[in-house]
Amino acid sequence: MRLRSTATAMALALMAMQGPAWADMEAAKAFLDAEIGDLSTLSRAEQEAEMQWFIDAAKPYAGMEIKVVSETITTHEYESKVLAPAFTAITGIKVTHDLIGEGDVVEKLQTQMQSGENIYDAYINDSDLIGTHWRYQLARNLTDWMAGEGAAVTNPNLDLNDFIGLKFTTGPDGKVYQLPDQQFANLYWFRYDWFTDPKTMEDFKAKYGYDLGVPVNWSAYEDIAEFFTGRDMSYIGGPATGVYGNMDYGKKDPSLGWRYTDAWMSMAGMGDVGEPNGLPVDEWGIRVDENSRPVGSCTSRGGATNDAAAVYAVTKAIEWLQKYSPPEAQGMTFGEAGPVPAQGSIAQQMFWYTAFTADMVKEGLPVMNEDGTPKWRMAPSPHGAYWQEGMKVGYQDAGSWTLLKSTPVDRAQAAWLYAQFVTSKTVDVKKSHVGLTFIRESTIQHQSFTDRAPKLGGLIEFYRSPDRVRWSPTGTNVPDYPKLAQLWWQNIGDAMSGAKTPQEALDALCAEQEKVMERLERSGVQGDIGPKLNEPQDPQVWLDAPGAPVAKLENEDPTPETISYDELIKSWQ
């Protein structure tokens, strides 16, 4: 199976340099031959028909140069290096697809929203900003765009119903604001070979009195972390020293905030029951009223950002980072910590992004078997002591195309063509094999992924399971993602460093979130869907009421529970 073709990218780039004369079906056929082949849900004739549509729709924009931006992950690298030159060669629209850090993408987007200056013609930014886009109305809502100014450049074969994350990019008004480009979930990751080894299983049961398996709750996760940390695993070919039962990161960096909003707090049990997000209190601890207006973040206003479940979530993370993780993890960022489990000394990770799958299945890694199958598996993350059935179980990232209103119409139209090209049925199966970040149901069901499933550690089983819909991005309770997200890493960082206790850090965080929301309320910029804060009162009033926020449990360490991975997979199938 061809997963990447640098030669194709170079050839198409050379074609693109020849100018718009190359913008025809010959370039398209060269691309389909060299790069796509049968890795598509469309037949060759259907692929060519879709490419012809792009060629025709792009004619008014031939020779135009546009700039788009995304974060740097494998999927977007493929788009930037292979699909952008192909699109240029096929359509004559020259695309520069910049790759920058996720925090930088949000910063550029925020700058363009505030200034009105057109920095980029389109952004791939997380659907976590859906509450921001819906309230500010500075992004084009795609529902109206596709029926109006974007009608002539909207692919009749786009098939919105095929996108598995469309509900994440839809506002409470029923309008679609963003088009998903890539998706990945945070799941539990573990060394299946270690967990199923008879001696390891026997030793674990002798010590803890129950079976080693996928932890269902945090109590079991903690026992497993303790059991493996410092254990000599050389008897089954693992390291003799330097084994750890947990992997995480703790550097004061923007990525530290994502760890908690995406969605450590909900896994602990902070927030209310509700899917895709807790309602009325979400996984950021923000409460909304019946009109979706944010009314508070601190317990004194009915929020949960500083309640007992939130404190428990942060306390456990710090404890496990310090006791059961490599010492250097405390100084790592998300990007630095991501590759560590593949190095072969980590037994499990509670919160692992499936975006790392592509880098975890490379030949020769200590976590791979010689036959190309992984020694590891993925499963649902365990839940904390405050979690109840019906609460959010985990996070799903949905990096999505966003067209800001400050972008001139013709440039937005050209960028919209590129956005649809890289998410089209022609290219999506191949792109998904490269990055393993699924956006289309038809792609997930493609025979090539049935064939490849044994080598992907449970990824295909997860995305084909009915459980998949229970993982979701940040929802619409968050009124200004860029402003509020930066408060999280700064305050959580204070707890991580020991400068503040978890309670002190979360008290400060919820107060700062409310200051931002107070400013939004006073400014009136978000109209009648912006924040309208409750008057503060004795937190006990809210703690005595049903749902979030919650008071401290007498027992934050319930009976440990595990499940056999093989039984779990059967339930998915």
Describe the structure.
Among the domains are: about 250 residues, 3-Layer(aba) Sandwich (D-Maltodextrin-Binding Protein, domain 2); about 120 residues, no CATH class. Strand 1, helix 4 and strand 2 form a beta-alpha-beta unit. Helix 1 packs parallel to helix 4, helix 4 packs antiparallel against helix 16 and helix 20 packs antiparallel against helix 21. By secondary structure, it is of the alpha+beta class. It is built from 23 helices and 11 strands. The longest helix has 22 residues. About 0% of the residues have low confidence. Strands 1, 2, 3, 4, 8, 9 and 10 form a 7-stranded mixed β-sheet that branches. The two termini are about 25 Å apart.
Beta-strand content bin:
5-15%
- How big is the Rg? 24 Å
Structural class: alpha+beta
Largest sheet: 7 strands, mixed
CATH class of the domain at 6-184 and 399-467: Alpha Beta
Which CATH architecture of the domain at 6-184 and 399-467 would you pick? Answer: 3-Layer(aba) Sandwich
* CATH H-tier superfamily of the domain at 6-184 and 399-467: Periplasmic binding protein-like II
Number of helical segments?
23
Low-confidence parts, pLDDT < 50 over ≥5 residues?
Answer: 16-22
**How many beta-strand segments?**
11
Distance between the termini: 26 Å
In the CATH hierarchy, the third-tier topology of the domain at 6-184 and 399-467 is known as D-Maltodextrin-Binding Protein, domain 2
Mean pLDDT: 94
Features:
D-Maltodextrin-Binding Protein, domain 2, alpha+beta, single chain, two-stranded antiparallel ribbon, 573 residues, 23 helices, 42% helix
